[in-house]
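Record type: monomer structure entry
Structure origin: computed from sequence
Chain ID: A
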Amino acid sequence: MEHNTKVKIGLIGLGTVGTGVVKVLKNFDNIEIAKIAVKNLNKKRDIENLDESLLTDNPYEIVNNPEVDIVVEVIGGVEPAYDLLKTAILNGKHIVTANKELLAKKGQELFNLANENNTVILYEAAIAGGIPIIMPIKTTLAGNKIHTIEAILNGTTNYILTKMEKDGVSYEEVLKEAQKLGYAETDPTGDVEGFDSAYKIATLATIALNQRVDINKIYREGITKICARDMKFAKDLGYRIKLIALAKLTEDNKADVRVHPMLVPIKDCLASINGVTNSVVLEGFPVGRVMFAGPGAGMFPTASSVLGDILAISKSIGSNEMLPLMKCAHNVNALQVDINDTQNKYYIAITASNTPGVIGSIGEICGRHNISLASVLQKGIDVENTADIVVITESCKEQNIKSAISELEKNSNILKINNIIRVME
C-alpha cells in the first residue's frame, strides 16, 4: 500500500460508540470513513457537519463494498452482526468490533474464518471500554503464564452496588435512580443478572488463560438479591460487595470461570473501584499481579479503544503478514469447572430465633458438612425476638455449602437464610 493512500473505514452503527468514533476520526487525515450504516436514516445525529451522503440503512453495502478496508462494527447483538462480519471477512476485510456478546457466542467461528482469509479481528473496545487490556495481554504480557483474572467488568452494577453501600438504600431504589441518570437500561437484565460480565470474561479468559472458554458453561449470578443489610454486615466484617468476573486455572489446568457477587476484602485493590469504573487484575508468572483500571464504557473511552485497533490495522495493511501477534491461536477447548466443585469462602446471613445454643447448632451443622467457621457476627435482637447472625466460613466446597444450607433450613430455630455470597480470599 502506498504511503499516501487513505485507509477506508465502513462503520456499522451510529449509536453512542459509533458517534464517538466519527468524532475522533476527524483528527486523522490518513483514515477516511467511506460509509456508515444506520437503522434510521432520518434520526437527528449529534455530529457537526456530518456528510449525510455517507449514511445507508443497508449494512451489506458496507461489507460488500470493495473500497472498504476495515469494517468497524458497533451495533451489538448476535444477528445481524454475525452474518455481516462473516460476509466482510470472506470479502477480505479486517474487523474492529466492540461486540462482546458476538465474540462470546460466535468468536470461535469468526476467528477461524479470519485466519483462513488472512484478515484480523481486533476487539479492544469489547472488554472494559477504554481500558487497554487485550493488546497488553497479547503483546507485552505474552511471555506470562496467567493463572488468575479478577475483574469488575460492568459499570452499571458497580455503580448500583457503590451507591447502595454509600447511601444504605435498597437495590430497587438505586436501580430506578440509575435508570433516570442513564447508567442503567430500561431493561437492566443484561447488566444486573451478570450477562454482560459473562460475555466479557468469556473472551478475556480465553486469551489470558490461552484456552477456549465456552460461554454456556460459565456460572452466572447477578446482584438482584443483594440488600443494604448485606452491605452493612460486609462492611462490619471488613469487606465490600462487588460483582466479580473470575477466571482461574486450577492445579490440574482446568478453567474455573464465573460471574457472581463477592465480598472483597477492603484492603484489596478491587474494593476501591467505585461507580462506573471497571478494573481487571491479572496474576501470572513472571509478572506477578498487575491491575488495569479506567472507564469501562462511554462514548470517548470506548471510541479510544476502537481507534487504537483501527490504527494498528491501518499501519500494517499492505504488508504480507497482518499483526501476527493479534491473531487467534487457541485450539484447546478449556475443561471448565462446575460451580459445585469450586472451593470458596462463604458469607451466610441468617435470621434465627433468639434461643440459647442457636449459634452452636449452626456451627455443628456446618461441621457435619466439613465446613469450618472463620467468623460469626450476631446483630441485635429485634421485636419478634429474632437475631441476625452472619457467618463467614473457611474455604470449602460449594457442594458442601449447599447440603449444609438445606439442613440449616430444616432447623426449627433458623427462620430464614437471607443470603449466601462467596468471599474473595
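Annotation 1: The longest strand covers residues 239-249.
Annotation 2: The mean pLDDT is 93.
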